[in-house]
Amino acid sequence: MSTETAAAAEVVALPPAGWEEARSRVYAVGLAAALPAVSRPLADADGHTLAEPLTPRTDLPAFPTSSVDGWAVRGDGPWQVVGRVLAGHTPPPLEADGSTVEIATGAMVPEGTTAILRIEESTRTADGRVAGTPRPAPEWREPGEEAYAGEELLPAGTPVDPAVLGLAASCGHDTLRVRRRPRAALLVFGDELLTSGPPGAGRVRDALGPSVPAWLRRYGCQVRPADVVGPVADTLPAHVAALRAALADADLVCTTGGTMHGPVDHLHPTLEALGADYVVNTVAVRPGFPMLLARLVDDDGRVRFVAGLPGNPQSAVVALVSLVAPLLAGLQGRPMPVLPQVTLAEPVAGRGDYTHLALVRLDRVAGTAHPVRHVGSAMLRGLSGADGFAVIRPGTSGAAGDRVPVVPLPLTPGERSW
C-alpha cells in the first residue's frame, strides 16, 4: 500500500464529527483567526462588522431639543415675543419672565425656558402677545435622553446595516472600526460538468458555480467573478495548482466535489500537498456527510481555510450552512449564530445516528415549519421553495407539534438571523 493510500485509509477510518460539535469547532477556529480591524468611512461600512463597541461621542441629544413647533416661554403668560429659534442655531437665553421666542422642532431650547407651548394650542392677543396653556409634560428632549457619551450602544460583532449606519452618524462618527469582509473563492471540480446549455450525453450542468458565490455574499463575503474557477481538470497537478492560486488572495476557498476518495477525487491529496490540517473531516449529517474544513497557516501566521463541499447541490448547501456559515461568523468577529425554534406542522423522519437537516418552508404567522418535496441531495427544486433546514437530532424523529431548531437560509447579503 502506498503512503498516500495508507493516509487516505486512515482518514476514512476516523469517525465523523457530530453536527453540533462541527459547528462549534469551525466557529472557534474562525474566531481565533478573526480578520483584522480596519477603519471605513460610513459610506463604505455597510455589510462589515463592528470591531469595537459603538458609543456616542456626545450625549444624545447633545443639547435640549424642542420636540414640537411652538413657543419657548418663560414664566406665566401671555408672553411678549422677543425672537425666533430655528434648528441649527444657538439661541440667547430667555432672560425675562413673560417673554417667549418662536421655536422650531429640533431647535435648541433657550436657557431660561420654563415650558414650550405648541403652536396649534396658542392664540395671539390684541396687542400681539402669545396666550395659551402649555402641557404639563416638557415638550423637549433632555440631553442624554437617548444615550450618554461613551455609553455602549452596540457591541463589537454587530453586523453593520443601514440602521447601524444611521445610529453611528447620529453619534457623531465619520468612520467606523470594522472587520473587513472575508475574501472568498470557489473552485468547481468535475470534468463531467457543463457550464452552459442543457444537460445530456452523460454530462450535467454545473449548478454550484453560479449559486455558491451568491450564498457566500449573503454570508458577508467578497467574491468577484474572477474568483470562480472551473471546472478544474480531474488531475492532482491541476487541483494543486488551482487551489494554490486561489489561496493567494482568499481567506476562504470553497471547492465542490472530490471530498471522498474515489478514483478522480483529488481534494484530500491536494490538501496534504499544501500542508493543510483538518478542522473537520466528514460530519454526521444527512444529506451532506462528506464535507470538510481544512486550515493552512503561512510562515507569517496568516490563516486561510478550505471548505470542501460535496458535489451534489443540496449537500453542498448543507455544508455551507453547517460549516461555512459559522466559520464566517467567527472570521468576522460575530457571535455564533443562534438557531431559532419552530414547530413542525408535519412529521419529519430521523436519520439514525446522523443529524437530519430537512428542508422546510416556514409559516411565520403560525410559527410552523412544513417539509417540502423534491429534497434529494442532487435536487435543487425543494431548496428553491424552502426557508431553511429543520434540525432533527441523532436518534430522534420529528413529530407534528415538536419544537425543533431551524437553520435559516440567508435571503439578502449580510442579513441578520430572523
Automatic annotation (TrEMBL):
One of its GO terms (molecular function) is metal ion binding. Keywords: Magnesium, Metal-binding, Molybdenum, Molybdenum cofactor biosynthesis, Transferase. It comes from the Bacteria. Residues 185-330 form the MoaB/Mog domain. GO terms for biological process: Mo-molybdopterin cofactor biosynthetic process. Pathway: Cofactor biosynthesis; molybdopterin biosynthesis. Belongs to the MoeA family. This is Molybdopterin molybdenumtransferase. It comes from Micromonospora chersina.
